[in-house]
């Protein structure tokens, strides 16, 4: 469904990704661990078509992202991809419901049905009562759940999650991650999860380690 074939990425003289090979199947949860600065986030951006690769190809459902024009790539990302970042990156002026409904609004859904969908997903994450609050009125864990709801509300094909629980304490991180992966699995959504946390990575179907720009597949027992 999503693949990287010989992907290379440079920032000026710095080579961030060296010939990365990866295959993500429908509904698969893949985790990428590795030291700070090893290139995990950079690979995520390549896979999501956010940065153009210097060499090699990223393919999504048979289409080479690097050969698509900006408009088509944006439309593909909007429909098929979801994103969760370390700090939820919620919009402070919108309510929780409105934040979670954003991807549907960007896809052209009317406000009422989009909010109803958002409330349904928020409810599955235990936030049914918080829809009318602003993000500033939520805890860190609740904000990350809203970010998860926003990433999944449009039932994307794949969610890219960059340290989605990195800002939370370990108990909270574990709970949010469990809810995130359970919801993604129930929707058949694939996840590429970047994390420093090897325990978090052990919940994935497939594991990779990024070592100085080189992506190395790892056996589950190695974690
Ligand atoms: N915009 C940029 N311009 C120049 N160099 C960059 C840029 N972004 C990242 N880098 C460099 O590319 C390399 C990989 O960075 P990247 O953020 O992908 O690593 P990471 O494994 O995600 O790190 P962390 O776990 O700390 O987030 C690092 O050497 C970093 O300094």
TrEMBL record:
Q: PROSITE patterns per the record?
A: ABC_TRANSPORTER_1, ABC_TRANSPORTER_2
Q: Which residues form the ABC transporter domain?
A: 2-222
Name of the protein in its database record: ABC transporter ATP-binding protein
Q: Which SUPFAM superfamilies does the UniProt record give?
A: P-loop containing nucleoside triphosphate hydrolases (SSF52540)
Q: Does the keyword ATP-binding apply?
A: yes
List, alphabetically, the Pfam families matched.
ABC_tran (PF00005)
MF terms from GO for this chain are: ATP binding
Instruction: Give the UniProt keywords, A-Z.
Output: ATP-binding, Nucleotide-binding, Transport
């Amino acid at each position: 469904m999503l693949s990287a074939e010989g992907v290379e990425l440079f920032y000026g003289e710095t080579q961030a990704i060296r010939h990365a090979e990866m295959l993500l199947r429908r509904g698969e949860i893949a985790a990428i661990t590795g030291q700070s600065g090893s290139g995990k986030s950079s690979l995520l951006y390549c896979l999501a078509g956010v940065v153009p690769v210097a060499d090699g190809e990223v393919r999504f459902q048979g289409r080479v992202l690097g050969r698509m024009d900006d408009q088509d790539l944006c439309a593909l990302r909007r429909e098929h991809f979801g994103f969760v970042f370390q700090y939820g990156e919620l919009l402070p002026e919108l309510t929780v419901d409105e934040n979670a409904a954003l991807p549907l609004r960007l896809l052209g859904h009317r406000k009422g049905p989009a909010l109803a969908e958002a409330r349904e997903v928020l409810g599955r994450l235990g936030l049914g009562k918080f829809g009318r609050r602003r993000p500033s009125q939520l805890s860190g864990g609740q904000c990350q759940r809203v970010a998860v709801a926003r990433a999944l509300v449009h039932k994307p094909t794949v969610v890219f999650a960059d340290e989605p629980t990195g800002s939370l304490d370990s108990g909270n991180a574990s709970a949010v991650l469990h809810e995130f992966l359970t919801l993604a699995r129930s929707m058949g959504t694939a996840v590429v999860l970047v994390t420093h946390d090897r325990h978090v990575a052990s919940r994935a179907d497939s594991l990779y380690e990024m070592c100085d720009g080189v992506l190395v597949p790892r056996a589950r027992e190695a974690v």
